[in-house]
Design brief:
By secondary structure, this protein is of the alpha+beta class. The chain contains 11 helices and 10 strands.
Length: 404
C-alpha cells in the first residue's frame, strides 16, 4: 500500500548519520513507495504516454496525493519537508518507470517548489502554494535562444512603471511543462549593461499575465510526454511584489538552484540507465540463441557487467552530491561530477541495451528504443556535459593550487 510521504518521519535529522552506501529505514521506505508507484502506475503506460505525447495528469495528481510534488517544501505549505537525497531517490525510481514523469517531478520540485520554499516571502508562498492545489505545476524560465549556457547574455527585460509594477518583454525558450504550468519563476534583466548583475528572478502567475503567450510544443526526440515550449512576454505587467529574492540577485539564485536541479537530472539519467539494464537482462533471459539464453553468452555478460558498474558508480556520485547539499556544503564539484557521469551512463546503458536486443531494440514495441531516445537529453539540459567537465576541472585545479 502506498503511503503519503508526510506520514513518514522526516529524514533531515539523519543527514549526518547515513552512509551513501547504506540508506536508513526512512529513505528505504520512500524508495520503496516510488518503486511501487513506478511498477503499478508508470511502466504499464510509459510507451503510450510517449507515443501520444500525453502529459500524465492522472499520475501527477496521484503523486501529489503522496506528497511527491512538494518534496522539500515546509509542512505549513502542505509539503513533505524532505531533503535532496530523498528527492534524488524519488526521481530515480519514477524515471525508471517513465522518464517523462520523472523529469516533470524533478523540474517542478528542484527548480520551482524548492526555490520558492527557500527564498519566497510569506505572501509569495501563500499565493503560489496555499492558493494552488498540490498537483499544480510550476515552471522555470531561464534559457533563451541566445542565452543557454551563457546565462549572463539573456535579453528578456524587466522595467518598473510609475506605479512600481514590473513590465516584462522578451522570450524564454525550453521551458519544461510550460503548457501545464500555472506559474513560473522567470529570469529577466533590469539593465542589460549590468550583465549578470542585472538579472532578477520574478514570480509570474500565468492566469494574471496579460500579454503572455505560450508557444507551440517542441517536437522532441525523447521525454515526449512532457511539454517544452517558449514563453513570449509582450508588455506583461506583474506586481512589484513579484521579485523573488533581491533585484540583481537572479544570477546567483539561478546558479545555486541549477546545482540542485542537476541532482534531479542526474537521478533521472540514473533511472533511465537502470531501466535499460533491467530491459536488457530480462530479454537476454528469454531469448534463445545458439541453443541457449543470450544471458549465458560471454559478450552479453560483459555488456551487462559494464552497464552495472557504471550505474553503481553514478549512483554513488549522486548520493554523495545530494548528501553534501543536505549538509549545507558547497557541492558544485560533486554535483557536476554526478550530472556528467550519470548522463553518459544513461546513454551508455541505453546503447548497450539496444545492442543486446539486436533488431528488437530498434522497434517501438520494445522499451529499449524509448530508453535510448530519453537518455540523450540528460547530457544536454541543466548544463551540457562539456560545461560540467569545465566546472569539475576548475574546482580540481583550484583545490590542487590551494594545497601548494
Amino acid at each position: 500500500m502506498l503511503r503519503k510521504l508526510s506520514t513518514i518521519k522526516p529524514i533531515v535529522p539523519f543527514v549526518r548519520q547515513y552512509s551513501v552506501c547504506e540508506l536508513p529505514k526512512e529513505l528505504r521506505q520512500i524508495q520503496q513507495t516510488c518503486w511501487n508507484f513506478a511498477e503499478r502506475e508508470l511502466k504499464p503506460i510509459a510507451a503510450e504516454l510517449d507515443h501520444e505525447e500525453r502529459f500524465p495528469s492522472i499520475q501527477i495528481s496521484k503523486l501529489a496525493n503522496l506528497g511527491l510534488m512538494r518534496v522539500t517544501v515546509s509542512p505549513e505549505y502542505n509539503g513533505s519537508n524532505l531533503n535532496m537525497l530523498a528527492m534524488s531517490l524519488i526521481v530515480e525510481e519514477l524515471s525508471r518507470g517513465c522518464a517523462s514523469t520523472g523529469v516533470i517531478v524533478s523540474i517542478h520540485n528542484c527548480l520551482y517548489a524548492d526555490l520558492l520554499n527557500r527564498l519566497g516571502t510569506a505572501d509569495q508562498k501563500d499565493q503560489f502554494f496555499t492558493k494552488h492545489s498540490n498537483d499544480t505545476i510550476g515552471a522555470f524560465a531561464l534559457s533563451e535562444s541566445d542565452a543557454g549556457s551563457d546565462v549572463a547574455a539573456l535579453s528578456t527585460t524587466a522595467k518598473q512603471n510609475d506605479g512600481g509594477d514590473w513590465i516584462l518583454n522578451g522570450t524564454k525558450t525550453w521551458v519544461t511543462s510550460a503548457k501545464e504550468a500555472k506559474s513560473a519563476i522567470v529570469f529577466a534583466t533590469v539593465d542589460r549593461a549590468l550583465k549578470y548583475r542585472g538579472i532578477t528572478a520574478f514570480l509570474v502567475n500565468f492566469e494574471e499575465a496579460k500579454g503572455l503567450t505560450i508557444g507551440r510544443k517542441e517536437d522532441k526526440l525523447g521525454i515526449r510526454a512532457t511539454s517544452t515550449c517558449s514563453l513570449h512576454f509582450d508588455n506583461v505587467r506583474i506586481p512589484k511584489q513579484s521579485v523573488l529574492g533581491e533585484v540583481g540577485g537572479g544570477f546567483r539564485i539561478a546558479m545555486e538552484q541549477l546545482d540542485r536541479a542537476r541532482i534531479g537530472i542526474a537521478s533521472q539519467a540514473l533511472g533511465i540507465a537502470q531501466a535499460a539494464l533491467e530491459t536488457a537482462t530480462q530479454y537476454a533471459e528469454q531469448r534463445i540463441a545458439f541453443g541457449e539464453p543470450l544471458l549465458r553468452l560471454h559478450s552479453v555478460q560483459v555488456r551487462i557487467a559494464e552497464m552495472a558498474v557504471r550505474i553503481e558508480s553514478a549512483r554513488l556520485l549522486i548520493r554523495k552530491a545530494a548528501a553534501e547539499v543536505d549538509q549545507g556544503k558547497r557541492a558544485t564539484k560533486a554535483i557536476s561530477m554526478a550530472k556528467w557521469i550519470a548522463g553518459e551512463t544513461a546513454t551508455f546503458a541505453a546503447h548497450n541495451c539496444q545492442q543486446i536486443l539486436g533488431g528488437m531494440g530498434y522497434v517501438k514495441d520494445m522499451a529499449a528504443e524509448r530508453h535510448y531516445r530519453d537518455a540523450r537529453i540528460t547530457e544536454i539540459y541543466g548544463g551540457v556535459t562539456d560545461v560540467q567537465k569545465l566546472i569539475v576541472a576548475e574546482h580540481v585545479i583550484r583545490e590542487l593550487q590551494h594545497k601548494k
